[in-house]
Design goal:
alpha+beta
């Protein structure tokens, strides 16, 4: 299990990479703005109270170590304030969404806890995005605190061992092609079995397949058994592998292709 990449490293890599992907300039600029805003937060993290035995027991039982509800409740006013920051950044970088953002703002009662915010915003794609970006720095901060303690624990499931979310990116790593998953919510990375669909275990080649990019670096895995898809970068084919959190942004075209074909990112718990 690996902790999320730090903000400075991720920002530097995105900025360095941006010139090679001019068609993604808008998405990269917004991602950088959100990362910079998140890096300025001073997230208060309670002391880790889990013992290694309890943590291992939770993992073996299929339970995440940090249910998102705990972060939602503990975020309090800071979470509400950052939600407004996220909305303002999205409006600045995507002005065509301003009307919808205004409607979301009017429909969302200022929450006394993050739980009510999550419930109210999840009804639309934009609302889900705002919620995701609001929670992200809080989840990442907690994940960093927990991942260091759990770095050598055995875990190979598909849902994030820290927060229970599903992955939205994967890598086949050097030298032997081990598959590593990236959590869509807290950016934790962990190993997963190489063969078959990570979501449902399907190994039938007639319903589990992948579509490679022309250069062989990327693969879009799709599963007709569960309807899930997984973007994957084969880092063995890269001269200098990039952070998975960077690859997530550079491959958004694969997301569009998968959704258009009827597949979806499986969200986890």
């Amino acid at each position: 299990m690996q902790s999320p990449a730090d903000y400075d490293t991720l920002l530097a890599e995105l900025v360095e990479t941006a010139s090679a992907y001019p068609h993604l300039a808008e998405a990269i600029d917004l991602e950088c703005a959100l990362l910079e805003a998140g890096s300025r937060l001073e997230v208060s993290i309670p002391p880790v109270s889990l013992t290694r035995d309890i943590a291992q027991g939770r993992l073996e039982s299929g339970l995440p170590l940090l249910p998102q509800e705990e972060v939602l409740v503990s975020g309090g006013q800071q979470l509400s304030d950052f939600r407004r920051t996220v909305g303002s950044l999205v409006a600045a970088h995507r002005p065509e969404l301003s009307d919808e953002l205004d409607r979301l703002s009017r429909a969302t009662t200022p929450p006394c806890s993050g739980q009510s915010m999550a419930g109210q915003e999840s009804h639309s794609e934009l609302g889900s995005y705002i919620q995701h970006q609001t929670l992200r720095p809080f989840l990442v901060a907690h994940a960093c605190a927990l991942a260091a303690m759990l770095s050598d624990m055995n875990f190979t499931g598909w849902q994030c061992p820290i927060c229970g979310s599903g992955p939205d990116m994967a890598a086949l790593t050097r030298p032997d092609g081990q598959r590593i998953l990236l959590c869509s919510a807290c950016d934790t990375r962990w190993p997963c079995q190489r063969i078959g669909c990570p979501f449902c275990g399907n190994e039938d080649p007639s319903t589990w397949a992948y579509y490679p990019s022309d250069d062989g670096v990327y693969r879009l895995y799709v599963c007709d058994a569960c309807g899930g898809y997984l973007k994957t970068v084969d880092q063995r084919e890269q001269v200098r592998p990039r952070l998975l959190a960077t690859e997530r942004i550079l491959t958004i075209g694969m997301d569009a292709a998968a959704v258009d074909a009827g597949y979806q990112i499986l969200p986890g718990d």
